[in-house]
Amino acid sequence: MNNCPNENIDCVYQEALNKIKHDQKYKPTCCTIIGPTGPAGPTGPTGPATITVGTTTIGQPGSNPSVTNVGTNQNTILNFVIPAGPTGPTGATGITGPIGPTGPTGATGPAPTITIANTITGTPGSQADVSISGTDGEYELTFTVPQGPTGPTYGLSAYGGLYNGNQTVTTQQPTTATPIPLGTTMPTKNVTAESNQLTVLDDGTYRISYTVILSPNTTGGNIEVYARNTEEEIEPSSLTYNVTQSSVQTYTNSIIYELQEDDQIDLALETAAAEGVTVSYANLTVEKLDTSNIVPGA
Question: What's this model's pTM, rounded to 2 decimal places?
Answer without folding.
Answer: 0.48
